Amino acid sequence: MKKSIVAFIAGFLIGAPALAQMNGPAETIFARYQTLERSFDPAVADLYCDTALIRNIRTYPNGQQRTLDLPATNYKAAIRAAMPLAKARGDYSTYSGVTFDPDGANVRIRATRYSMIKKYSSPISLLVGPCNGGAWAILEELSESQP
Question: Please, what are the domains in the chain?
Answer without folding.
Answer: 2-145 (3.10.450.50)
